[in-house]
Amino acid sequence: MIMNKIYLDNAATTPVAEEVFEAMKPYFTNSYGNPSSVYTTAQEAAMAVGEARERVARLLGASSDREIIFTSGGTEADNLAIKGTAMALKSKGNHIITSKIEHHAVLHSCQYLEKYLGFEVTYLDVDKKGFVDPIDVKEAIRDDTILVTIMMANNEIGTIEPIKEIAKITREKDVCFHTDAVQAVGQIPIDVNDLQVDLLSLSAHKINGPKGVGALYVRKGSKLTPQMSGGAQEWKRRGGTENVPGIVGLGKAAELALENMDNKNKRIKKLRDRLISGINKEIDDVILNGPEGEKRLPNNVHFCFKYIEGESILLNLDMLGIAASSGSACTSGSLDPSHVLLAIGHPHEIAHGSLRLTLGINNTEEDVTYLLEVLPGIIQKIRDMSPLYSV
Ligand code: PLP
Questions:
Q1: Is the beta carbon of 219 within 6 A of some atom in ligand 1?
Q2: Sheet containing 68-71: which strands, arranged edge to edge?
């Protein structure tokens, strides 16, 4: 198989960092014991899980490592946060507030609660740049509201939401607040005590850790009904033998994310801004989605190109060795445009022409130069074939 020379889809997943892979290895073959067992090799595994928990707690500024619950990824963390809170607090109320641009792990968890368990969900609008207005959250809170769940940063268009402002409102109203921070962790500094969130989801494979492992931060005192019934692992909040190598990998990735955040993000932000200004300058009829500057994820570039389909851009980039994404969860084979692009007000035909480029630790100035060299020609070629386009 021919490898893509240039990987610009780091929001989908990231390569496992060498240090992370090295840290994980012993827990496959040497210290492979079950952390619940008593003998030495098992206790080595249990200690490694404990150390990883401390590292994740440190990355988030949590008060205690007991506030970290390991899961099988961001999707499970979102499910546990939303369904677990709903079930634990259903005697208090049955109303949940979220936004229209959440990841499907959040939207489908909310829809599940509506469909099967009789909860009511308010889906808040966002503005043209993808921002949730904290005033809208305030106005939507009712006496029976038990949970607000708003993402920290959007996985398609990179908008960083006003989480601190929203948390202030939920705290005043004594409503639990969850944030899906899967795309924000490692990209922007996070301190759960400064932000005052109650629950926060993250995923290892977005921060150069392994796939299939994540965590949910649960503020001390939060009520949560387990969604995975089984053993007493994770303080009875998530049954199942721990994925020890995965958790060790997440811990190492969290440590590296904290150490490298400033330098990495300064560098990546420069590449992002070069891509944005280059595309704006070289190609006509483009729309930058999401905000510019500090309220945009440092690694996110997302454009709509009028008159064409995002899928054909991806195929043409792939032929030139560049891996990218349309940004939408619905990939090939689906005619549905992105719910995020519709929510920020694009009509279907514009929403279909999207391209997301997301940068990571391995990207260089040369990658950006190459992309900017080839993209204008690709867009022109596809437009020349498009019945919607006339010069
Ligand atoms: N939430 C957001 C915002 C995401 O971007 C993703 C993955 O793309 C998820 C949740 C799901 O995470 P995972 O792939 O670890 O299940």
A1: no
A2: 68-71, 214-218, 199-203, 176-180, 145-149, 95-99, 120-124
The alpha carbon of 203 and the centre of ligand 1 are apart by a number of angstroms equal to 7
Q: 18-256 maps to which CATH number?
A: 3.40.640.10
Q: Is the CB of 182 under 6 A from ligand 1?
A: yes
pTM greater than the 0.90 cutoff: yes
Could you give the CA distance from residue 201 to residue 297 in angstroms, rounded to a whole number?
A: 17
Nearest to 7 by CA among 358, 375, 391, 386: 358
Contact 69, 237 (CB under 8 A): yes
Q: Do the beta carbons of residue 154 and residue 290 sit within 8 Å?
A: yes
Tell whether the model's pLDDT for residue 115 goes beyond 90: yes
**176 catalytic, yes or no?**
no
CATH topology classification for 6-14+261-390 = Aspartate Aminotransferase, domain 1 (3.90.1150)
Mean pLDDT value across the chain: 96
In this prediction, residues 162-180 reach a mean pLDDT of 98
- Measured in whole angstroms, the distance separating CA 231 from the mean position of its chain's CA atoms is 28
Rounded average pLDDT over 323-335: 71
Which pLDDT value is given to residue 354? 97
Q: Give yes or no on whether 6-14+261-390 and 18-256 have one common fold.
A: no
